[in-house]
Amino acid sequence: MLGYWQRPEATAETLAGGELHTGNLGFLDADGELHIRDRKSLVIIRGGANVYPAEVERVLHEAPGVAAAVLGLPDERLGERVVAVVELGLGAVLVEEDLRALCRAALPRYKVPERIVVVASMPRNAMGKVVRTQLPNLKLATDRLLRFAPYFAGDVRTGHGGGSAGHGGGRGDVRRVLAGERPDPGTRRPTHLRHRDGQWDQGAR
Question: Domain range holding 72?
Answer without folding.
Answer: 25-119
